[in-house]
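Re: [ENG-882] Designed sequences occasionally contain unexpected residues at chain ends

Forwarding the minimal case from QA. Structure tokens:
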């Protein structure tokens, strides 16, 4: 359990002068938004960093006094309503800058033009689309490996277990978020996403596409303690409609005095759905899909290929605490937004790293093709598939997933793969009624095609 902040002292400096004048300097040093390492810490952690000579309650009031002067109101949440606020931290500025530089539609077009062989990049990107659906499911408790989940999606076989149904549902939900990116937010869109994502898993548990109508939904920690009681169901739709009006308001217009960058707004929407918990189950998945939907809508198409949940699942406790820190400290969204921005900045960095590695791989691959004499023997589609295999993006191929990734006919995809087998670059094996293709060992290829 986290330690909630103490009740604030209305005028901490007056009390310092009256009762702690000898320590005035130490208290004044605390009158800052961030700690000495640039972190926006909750009382739960900051209390251990106060000098033992200081009154922790008074010290906290000094810190909070400095923060309150900079906090910007966003919107009211809950019942009775409480105004959510936030302020910009260095982590937010870093994430916003990375978002603007590397994830817009224009940035993606530039990346494709620079790489030259755009089909290879598209194959790489389509593989990355799966990552968020898989990681989000694992964050919710789906017991499956990433490798097994990728095979499930690539081979498009029917789901056999609830965990597999969750992964396929999440994948469909993310696809639906992308397809609906031109729509305004509405209660219908929110319930659609939920229905697409959870229908057919355990309908009695999830109630697909239906808002909760009672107050028996709670959020528990790993020990079974209730850590969040969502606001009452009676006024849920009314509260969501207010949120929808806020989301559909343009906060980047030059005439709007309350400017909010789309990334910050998307993160706030993520928090709101988690806080309101509008469904019986599956709220986290809907919250994350709406985060993506909003960024897609605002022209940040690169987020299709950036899996935030991959990093969130590495530290699920911190993810949960970022919610609780906000709720226990007077709805200060800074904690949640700052944490998400740190995760997002790392995810964008990894996305850029993958891209740079792809560029280098293609250059190296083309050199090998020319020097070995293979270039003239491979079709364009075969070069793409071979390079994807060589780069380790995908280890197993079927005619179906090559058809989907390259946008060609099934027979063309089969010809591409069988041609690679004939050239002794790939091997194939039968799995039921389906042929599975994979690249042979590199040393065999180098030996067979050594210049």
């Amino acid at each position: 359990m986290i330690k909630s902040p103490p009740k604030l002292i209305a005028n901490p400096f007056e009390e310092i002068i009256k009762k702690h004048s000898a320590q005035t300097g130490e208290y004044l040093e605390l009158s800052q938004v961030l700690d000495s390492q640039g972190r926006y810490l909750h009382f739960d952690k900051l209390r251990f960093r106060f000098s033992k000579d200081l009154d922790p309650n008074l010290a906290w009031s000094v810190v909070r006094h400095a923060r309150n002067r900079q906090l910007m109101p966003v919107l009211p949440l809950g019942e009775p309503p409480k105004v959510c606020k936030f302020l910009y931290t260095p982590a937010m500025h870093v994430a916003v800058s990375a978002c603007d530089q590397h994830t817009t539609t224009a940035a993606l077009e530039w990346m494709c033009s620079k790489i030259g062989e755009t089909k290879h990049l598209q194959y790489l990107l389509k593989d990355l689309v799966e990552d968020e659906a898989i990681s989000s499911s694992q964050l919710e408790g789906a017991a499956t490996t990433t490798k097994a989940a990728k095979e499930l999606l690539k081979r498009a076989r029917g789901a056999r277990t609830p965990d597999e149904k969750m992964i396929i549902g999440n994948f469909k939900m993310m696809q639906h978020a992308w397809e609906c990116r031109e729509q305004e937010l509405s209660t219908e869109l929110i319930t659609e996403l939920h229905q697409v994502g959870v229908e057919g898993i355990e309908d009695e548990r999830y109630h697909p596409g239906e808002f909760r109508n009672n107050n028996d939904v709670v959020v528990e920690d790993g020990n079974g303690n209730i850590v969040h009681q969502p606001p009452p169901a009676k006024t849920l739709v009314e509260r969501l409609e207010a949120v929808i009006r806020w989301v559909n308001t343009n906060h980047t217009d030059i005439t709007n005095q309350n400017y909010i960058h789309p990334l910050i707004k998307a993160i706030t929407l993520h928090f709101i759905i988690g806080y309101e918990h509008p469904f019986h189950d599956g709220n986290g998945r809907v919250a994350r899909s709406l985060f993506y939907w909003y960024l897609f809508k605002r022209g940040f198409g690169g987020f299709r290929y950036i899996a935030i949940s991959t990093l969130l699942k590495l530290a699920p406790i911190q993810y949960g605490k970022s919610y609780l820190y906000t709720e226990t400290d007077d709805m200060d969204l800074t904690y949640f937004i700052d944490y998400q921005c740190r995760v997002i900045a790392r995810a964008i960095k990894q996305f850029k790293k993958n891209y740079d590695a792809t560029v280098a791989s293609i250059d190296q691959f083309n050199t090998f093709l020319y020097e070995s004499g293979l270039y003239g023997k491979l079709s364009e589609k075969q070069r793409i598939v071979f390079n994807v295999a060589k780069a380790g993006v995908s280890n197993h191929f079927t005619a179906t997933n090559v058809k989907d990734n390259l946008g060609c006919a099934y027979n063309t995809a089969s010809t591409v793969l069988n041609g690679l087998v004939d050239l002794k670059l790939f091997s194939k094996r039968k799995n039921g009624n389906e042929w599975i293709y994979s690249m042979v060992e590199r040393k065999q290829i180098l030996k067979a095609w050594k210049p």
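QA comment: On inspection the terminal residues look reasonable. Confidence is low (pLDDT under 50) at residues 116-120, 142-146. Proposing we downgrade this to a documentation issue.
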